[in-house]
Design brief:
- α1 (3-15) packs antiparallel against α5 (131-147) and α4 (82-93) packs across α8.
- The protein has one domain (3-228): 3-Layer(aba) Sandwich (Uracil-DNA Glycosylase, subunit E), CATH 3.40.470.10.
- β5 (188-191) and β6 (194-199) form a beta hairpin.
- The longest helix has 17 residues, at 131-147.
- The protein has 229 residues and is α/β, with parallel strands linked by helices.
- The model has no long low-confidence stretch (mean pLDDT 96).
- It is built from eight helices and six strands.
Length: 229
């Protein structure tokens, strides 16, 4: 087996067994017991959600955390919720995904040149991790960055992910930027050999209001492609 693939998979397996944050463990399991009516017949994953994609990625996407009835249900990052619908449709249009939908593991989806991860690996109540939970999960992102040496572009979906990416890159050995670059949609900054791009998160709060449109999201990923390849 490809040694990079083996190491990356070993990390994801370790992440999926994490029980370091009691509040998140309790919440993810409670959601799996009560379920949403539309998914009442499904068995929820209810564990930390592994990252997903091409282990030789040149573009790394960082989100906030899995959705309670999305990744926490399906076991794949950004899969099974409206945010994921927007994200994977854009990745397909921009040439990173072989299909526009992500329904569940085993649905045939493949990513080319991209790895998708999150700052926090468990679904948090109200989609708001605590500072302590953020910091507990932080080493996983740092380890991913070290195991993905081909990454040239990091796309942060939202301000929380932007801050996590900056901290992760610095911990992985990149020089710290001073002053700290500010998040905005379309923001772009060099962090050592990596370019960090910002995008509004494809949450319903942003997509339903028109704060984030399909052309805006596509523009970020097309820029990432131009920079990375």
């Amino acid at each position: 087996m490809d040694p990079t693939l083996s190491l990356v998979h070993a990390l994801q397996e370790r992440i999926s067994r994490c029980v370091a944050c009691p509040r998140l463990v309790s919440w993810r399991e409670e959601v799996a017991r009560t379920k949403r009516a539309a998914f009442a017949h499904e068995e929820y994953w209810a564990r930390p959600v592994p990252a997903f994609g091409d282990p030789h990625a040149r573009v790394l996407v960082v989100g906030l955390a899995p959705a309670a009835h999305g990744g926490n249900r399906t076991g794949r990052i950004f899969t099974g919720d409206r945010s994921g619908d927007w994200l994977f449709a854009s990745l397909h249009r921009c040439g990173f995904a072989n299909q526009p939908e992500s329904v569940r593991p085993g649905d045939g989806l493949r990513l080319d040149g991209m790895w998708i991860t999150a700052a926090v690996r468990c679904a948090p109540p109200d989609n708001k991790p605590t500072t302590e939970e953020r910091d507990t999960c932080h080493p996983y992102l740092v380890e991913e960055l070290r195991l993905l040496p081909d990454v040239r572009v990091v796309v942060a979906l939202g301000g929380f992910a932007w801050d996590a990416a900056l901290r992760g890159l610095a911990a992985a050995g990149a020089p710290r930027s001073r002053p700290k670059p500010r998040f905005a949609h379309g923001a772009e900054t060099c962090v050592g050999d990596v370019t960090l791009l910002g995008s509004y998160h494809p949450s319903q709060q942003n997509t339903f209001t028109g704060r984030l449109t399909e052309p805006m999201l596509d523009g970020v990923f097309l820029r990432a492609r131009r920079l990375a390849f």
